[in-house]
Design goal:
The protein has a seven-stranded parallel sheet, with helices on both faces. The radius of gyration is 22 Å and the shape is globular. The chain has 14 helices and 13 strands. With 376 residues, it is α/β, with parallel strands linked by helices. The protein starts with 23 loop residues before the first strand and ends with a strand. The chain has a domain of 248 residues: 3-Layer(aba) Sandwich (Rossmann fold). Bound molecules: nicotinamide-adenine-dinucleotide and thymidine-5'-diphosphate. The site of thymidine-5'-diphosphate has 13 residues, from helix 8 and strand 8.
């Protein structure tokens, strides 16, 4: 048998630099809660990514969410901010033409507002998605004609709410969609449209369905930031119904990280659940944030329930785990960090809780609080 010697290369190994698969991104809704976290974290990796943010700056959009990027010259040089509407083809087309992928966070995102005024939800969450997809289709034709290397990838950020209320067990990606609010119905329509463009036109698309997300820079209309900021001011906390509804809570940096992971590694045409694996009743979440703030339970008031209120959301995340994604933030730590962030950043949320906010708050809560009951 011939003798073989193995040659060992003893020179120090320098890792081959491997950049992201999609270095030029269009991030729509990048001034919102989760989108801005995605932008901040992706640019902070300093991997050469350039990002164009397209954001309409609705009541929920806030350029201050990108202040950490703008304060860092190297990151700021890789960000371009465009104020515009995803439902406006003239604004969208030239931006889609210059990127490798689109990550669509832009949406009307609050269930209560969708109950008060559904129309804006249809315009952005359905028609906006359609306009983005049409722009991708044009780019696909350009790629076929040799005018660009490849068609852009399209990632649609969707929600666990498309499954509707889940009495027991956990939703898997193939389960029926049974949305029950104008918000979740619009989100379901948006993602079904995305899948139809994958099947019909062969666009490279992926969809993520995320759980209830929490963390810094969350607009104070949503449960956790509303209750933290109200409690800081010793104002009443309007808990809907019996407060025993259940949500799965996902830290914002984990949600943004999972979206990034699917963008880079997800299989075309597929949908991935993104969970926090932290199912809690609303009462438990509220008790925990009050304890961190050192505020009393007596601030909590039981108010008339949200019409059509989904009792429970829960998803199975084995498909995403199989793609190699793991969350980092435990719930107790994430909630404590979130409470502390709101306590330390009044300059961020106080301006939001003025102006248009006052009218919204009166419309949503005045009558409810007037008829509220003590929460035992
Ligand atoms: P958000 O309301 O904080 O931000 C939405 C952003 O989109 C804002 O910056 C707003 O100005 C912008 N926008 C709205 N309409 C637009 C339009 N027509 N054109 C361009 N920009 C527009 O929302 P979020 O909580 O960051 O949610 C981001 C995405 O994640 C949404 O698609 C939402 O459905 C989805 N999602 C949210 C959660 C959650 O718990 N927050 C959970 C799962 C999925
Ligand atoms: P929310 O943050 O609006 O998220 P979603 O409706 O998308 O789950 O609400 C989270 C839970 O908290 C939901 O069960 C409704 C409840 N809730 C209240 O009890 N009071 C409130 O004022 C708000 C905004 C929400």
């Amino acid at each position: 048998m011939p003798h073989t010697t193995q040659m060992h290369d003893t020179r120090p190994k320098t890792p081959t630099p491997r950049g992201p698969r999609h270095p030029r991104l269009l991030v729509t809704g990048g001034a919102g809660f989760i989108g801005s976290c995605f932008v901040r974290n992706r640019l902070a990796r300093r991997d050469g990514t350039t990002i164009v943010v397209l954001d309409k700056l609705t009541y929920a959009g806030n350029r201050a969410n990108l202040a950490p990027v703008e304060a860092d010259p190297e990151q700021a040089a890789r960000l371009r901010f465009v104020v515009g509407d995803i439902a406006d083809p003239a604004a969208v087309a030239p931006l889609v033409a210059e990127v490798d992928a689109i990550v669509n966070f832009a949406a009307e995102s609050h269930v209560d507002r969708s109950i008060l005024d559904p129309e804006a939800f249809l315009r952005t969450d359905v028609m906006g998605v359609h306009v983005l997809l049409e722009a991708c289709r044009v780019e696909q034709q350009r790629a076929t004609g040799g005018e660009r290397a490849a068609a852009p990838r399209f990632l649609q950020v969707s929600t666990d709410e498309v499954y509707g209320s889940v009495e027991s067990g956990a939703s898997t990606e193939d389960d029926r969609l049974e949305p029950r609010s104008p918000y979740s119905a619009a989100k379901a329509a948006g993602e079904l449209l995305v899948n139809s463009y994958s099947v019909t036109y062969g666009l490279d698309t992926v969809v993520t369905r995320g759980s209830n997300t929490y963390g810094p820079y969350h607009h104070p209309e949503k449960l956790i930031p509303l209750f933290i900021t109200n409690a800081i001011d010793d104002e009443r906390l309007p808990l809907y119904g019996d407060g025993l509804q259940r949500r799965d809570w996902l830290y914002v940096a984990d949600h943004a990280g999972a979206i990034d992971h699917v963008l880079e590694h997800g299989a075309t045409g597929e949908t991935y659940n993104v969970t926090g694996n932290n199912e809690r009743t609303n009462r438990d979440v509220v008790a925990q944030l009050l304890a961190r703030l050192g505020k009393p339970w007596s601030l909590v008031r039981l108010v008339d329930d949200r019409p059509g209120h989904d009792r429970r959301y829960a998803m199975d995340d084995s498909k995403l785990a199989g793609l190699g994604w793991k969350n980092k933030m435990p719930f107790d730590e994430g909630l404590a960090a979130t409470v502390d962030w709101y306590r330390d950043n009044e300059g961020w949320w106080r301006p939001i809780k003025s102006g248009e906010w006052q009218a919204y708050y009166r419309r949503q809560y005045s009558a409810r609080l007037a008829g509220s009951k003590e929460a035992t």
